[in-house]
Design brief:
By secondary structure, the chain is of the alpha+beta class. It is built from 13 helices and 21 strands. Helix 1 runs parallel beside helix 5 and helix 3 crosses helix 13.
Length: 395
Amino acid sequence: MADKFDVVIIGAGAAGLMCAAEAGKRGRSVLVVDHGKKPGRKILISGGGRCNFTNYDVDANNYVCRNPHFVKSALSQYTQWDFIAMIAKHDIAYEEREHGQLFCEDSAKDIVNMLLAECDSPTVEQRYRCDVHDIRKTDSGFSLTLNTDTVECESLVVATGGLSMPKLGATPFGYQIAEQFGLKMVSTTAGLVPFTLHKEEKEAFAELSGIAFPAVVEAEDGTTFKENLLFTHRGLSGPVILQISSYWTPGQKVTIDLLPDLELAETLTTMREKHPNQSLKNSLSRLLPKRLIEVLIARGDIHDKPLKQFNPKEITAMATYFHQWQIAPNGTEGYRTAEVTLGGVDTDELSSKTMEAKKVPGLFFAGEVMDVSGWLGGYNFQWAWSSGYVAGQNA
């Protein structure tokens, strides 16, 4: 005899647990299954173990999706304020950091424990180290095999996440389920991920590893972010690079304003008037890390000489160089270090109001498995809460 449930949720991450809690509150009999040993593994390591669980300022513009309107319904049905209210109900202390980002004061475990407490209902069951296979559509819903047991359900929710951080058990299983039922996919790639550089630039800039400073980075589509830029042994990272990586495609350049808070032409002109014999190297080293300036001189990108030897045209050219520094990444560090997966189940296949597949009644998706990726700053977790809530209200 097969076990029967109203709802089976595949994936015990942020979206899956949220969905289970909400479906359970509706009195639905719910089974959450996961191939891992414990729930919420990505939550636990996020934000340096503090979990950037949402943001004070959440908007559809904070998301990357082929259909930019898709996220609006779920984000309005369950807002950041709703999640903050749940945090308050469970007496979880949190703090605001820059750009409205909210983190646990103590530990990301608080979020996992809260979600498990919300799932603590007689109608909600969880099973771990569970391999799911042989999913079939039936007259009354779905049938699937869990390890060796057969389970039947009315509604099946796929909350399996993306491909980022494979060490945490990321797999393409959710995509395979979508394809099995004929749903279109948007090709996937790593997002919120550091850039690697071509050999020559990698070798030149490797000695700058660990240096960070504010910069504005622009993708070829015109998207810009202002955050810290970090040099690494392999290339470029820091929040501004992670953000822009979601808007970059291989072969494209990015344009970096290395001095976004001043007008370099004016600054150099003033310096030349006050200290005409001061070298360009020493002048720029007051504005940017000295080691960076030394590398740029060694590469022949800029030429060191006393400021008095620069004419206005050369100063303008120097300013353009630093305000529009262009670099063509070799690639990214890939899913290994990516915080999200771009692409996934095509949202045109889903109802934005319910998260149900339009042509497969009873099949729902929640979280990162679909073609919705948030910016850095708590937006991906908010999508997990919002889409999980909506799926839980309808599954």
